[in-house]
Prior knowledge:
This protein folds into two domains: 25-180 and 236-325, Bira Bifunctional Protein, Domain 2 (BirA Bifunctional Protein, domain 2, 2-Layer Sandwich); 339-429, Rossmann fold (3-Layer(aba) Sandwich). Helix 1 (25-41) packs antiparallel against helix 6 and helix 6 (146-163) runs parallel beside helix 10. The chain has helices at residues 25-41, 55-62, 67-72, 92-101, 104-107, 146-163, 181-192, 201-209, 220-225, 238-253, 298-301, 316-325, 347-363, 377-387, 397-402, 423-429; strands at residues 45-46, 52-54, 75-77, 84-87, 111-120, 132-141, 168-174, 259-260, 272-280, 288-294, 309-315, 339-343, 368-370, 391-395, 404-409, 415-419. By secondary structure, the protein is of the alpha+beta class. Strand 12, helix 13 and strand 13 (368-370) form a beta-alpha-beta unit. Histidyl-adenosine monophosphate (HAM) binds at residues 90-92, 121, 123, 128-130, 133, 135, 137, 139, 267, 288-293, 311-313, 315, 317-318.
Amino acid sequence: MKYAAPPYMYDVLPAAPPKESWLHTAKWRYVEGVFREVCCRYGYREIRTPILEQTDLFKRSIGEATDIVSKEMFTFTREGSERSLTMKPEGTAPVVRACIQHSLFAENPLLKLYYIGQNFRYERGQKGRYRQHQQLGIEAFGSDDPAIDAEVITLAMEFYRALGISEMDLHINSVGTATTRPLYKEALRDFVRPFLSELSAEGQRRFELNPLRMLDTKDKNDLRLLEAAPHMTDYLDDECREHFLQLQTYLTALGVPYFVDPTLVRGFDYYTKTAFEIKGRNLGSQDALGGGGRYDGLVEECGGSPTPGIGFGLGMERCLITLETLGIELPVPSESPLAFIIMLGEESVVKPAAVKLLGSLRSAGIAAEMDYRGRNFKKQLKRADELGASYTLLLGDEEAARKVVAIRSQATKEQREVPIGDAAAALLAL
Ligand code: HAM
């Protein structure tokens, strides 16, 4: 029996696989590090929440009629328990739940958080769309000022800029509020009704359940039919319109280019006012590098006091695939050991000294290795080269007896002897 990772889930490996160089742990760590650094610079602090949440949290927040809740959640009930649990399909609702549970909103009138987390959605997989994916996300609670919308969006753009990605476009829209949206939904239905039967089956389903989502289609015929559909922005009330205009003023002030995209609707019911997506130019059909928006009713919906909020989630996989496509080499730090100990001669004498030396190097903060397979000198040397060690430390019977070791540079082949007890200091000095 051969086991494999579940469909559309993947392993991230210690060395890059030849065809998918983005599945390399060092790259993940590097990108996560850049994200952490940018978040820190903007005053966001890290939060971590469990993989599992009560299913009802997602139903209430994301909305029962959305694709995520109606089709894509990994939900289960443990034998002997009545409680239904779901592997989180996104990060926002769990963060809101945690902040309410720990009274963080009460303690921090303006609360700015970031997270890096795994999400699970039972999707039709393809390149860039997986059943487990990682998001780099932020959420800012406590202000309904459009300047913070601009800050959130700018942070995302800054993150991509720090990685060297500029082949992307920012799309923004306003999706109104729970009060203004019903008017628009009806206008959209009125527009579609005369040709409803020509719409794709999915389009017709959305007409009934969630008409805004009709706009979020890749079906060419649906797109053609919906070309002249009314725009949400024409149905905004004065407050939403003003918010949207101010956001644009701030983005311009910050030098962030954007497109106003009236067809941009996001797959969650919780959004109000600002919605945005960053679309990569090299990603094919799964082109959303990341997206987010404002959700001024969500905290209350989840049982907290009314608290405005805005945030985003950026797809880790799509970010790494973009870097690969653009040929951007990340300056990932070397994982090679500095030193590799090579043993020669009588094992019962040399090995205890070698093991001790290895321990002392590592305690001194030096990345060091040896070969535990009892192999000859040549093979140990080969292993040192394979690992990319900068120095080999040669330890034979005679050196062990004299309590010295020979340090050899793999680059210049120069060699010198030092007392074993001084090896760590000598390497650090090099
Ligand atoms: P989302 O648009 O569903 O938003 O996901 C954010 C990003 O995660 C997407 O733009 C995409 O890059 C990536 N992503 C989503 N699903 C997949 C998948 N199946 N495979 C690979 N990548 C994927 C949210 O989840 C919201 N919680 C974002 C947010 C935070 N809004 C406000 N705060």
